[in-house]
Amino acid sequence: MEQVVEFLTLLHENNDKAWFDAHKEMYKRALSRFEEFAAKLIDGIAAFDPSVRGLTVRDCTWRIYRDTRFSPDKTPYKTHMGVFVAPHGKRGGYAGYYFHVEPAWDERSWSQGHQLTTGLYCPGPEVLRSVREEIADNGAEFEASIREAEGFVLDESNKLKRMPRGYAPGVPHEEWLKLKDIYVTRRVSADFMLDRNLLENTLHEFRKTKHFADLLNRAVRFACEEMR
Questions:
Q1: Where does the pLDDT of residue 105 fall: very low under 50, low under 70, confident under 90, or very high at 90 and above?
Q2: Residue 163: domain span
Q3: 3-state secondary structure string, the chain?
Q4: What's the rounded mean pLDDT across residues 123-138?
Q5: Is the full-model pTM beyond 0.85?
Q6: How many structural domains does the chain have?
Q7: Mean pLDDT of the chain
């Protein structure tokens, strides 16, 4: 991952088209290395979570070019690379495992560095309602799955101020029922990202979160059946 980190660090400091065009070959080498890692990561996750078998790198990754049309930030390139391994790929609507490389950041960055994350980000209203029902009905199992994800934390930064419709204050796990994104995350160090055993270490961490992903995807499947 060293080539990837090096390129993204330089891109963060030189985020403009002229620099990018002049360093296109460096970008291609970094992208190739990242895609090689992504392919191995997909296969490694599929070994313990068969629901993601058959995915390609293209199913799970994004282009580096930013859509700046509606953003006050007009820098043309993302300064991170990520791969999201989930049933049916990045646009499938299911919970999955997200590997994020970002060696440098500033106040505009949502991520603040290298991360491993498992869960759902911006689920639709039907899916979110189903997840809340899962938490309400099986809160103890949901709590256990978070404990199993040792080293990860449940992100509670995006949540409602009041209880969602249909739930009264004081019910068990009420703060979790307010969540609008449901994922556990772990920030990792530069040493972790540059370790020669990065793939094995990453798979070891993601295995801890499979139970959590399974619970969320059970809720997603219920929502999909309801919408048919």
A1: low
A2: 2-227
A3: CHHHHHHHHHHHHCCCHHHHHHCHHHHHHHHHHHHHHHHHHHHHHHHHCHHHCCCCHHHHECCCECCCCCCCCCCCECCCEEEEECCCCCCCCCCEEEEEECCCCCCCCCCCCCEEEEEECCCCHHHHHHHHHHHHHCHHHHHHHHHHCCCCEECCCCECCCCCCCCCCCCCCHHHHCECCEEEEEECCHHHHHCCCHHHHHHHHHHCCHHHHHHHHHHHHHHHHHHC
A4: 96
A5: yes
A6: 1
A7: 94
